[in-house]
Amino acid sequence: MLSVTEALERVLAGAEPLITETVPLASAHERVLAADLPARLSQPPFPSSAMDGYAVRRADVETLPAKLTIIGESAAGRPFPGKTGEGETVRIFTGAAVPDGADYIVIQENVMAENGVATIRERNAESCIRDAGVDFKQGQVLLRGEHRLNARDLLLAAQMNYAELTVYRQPHAAILASGDELLPPGSELAAGQIISSIPAGLGAMLDKAGARVTQLGIARDTMDSLLERVEASRGADLLITIGGASVGDHDLVHPALEKSGFTMNFHKIAMRPGKPLMLGARGDQRVLGLPGNPISAMICTTIFVLPLIAALSGNRGFSQNEELVPLAAPIPENGSRTHYMRAFTRTEGGQRKVETLPSQDSSLTATLARADCLIIRQPHAPAASTGEIVRIHPITF
Question: How many other β-carbons are positioned within 10 Å of the β-carbon of residue 321?
Answer without folding.
Answer: 9
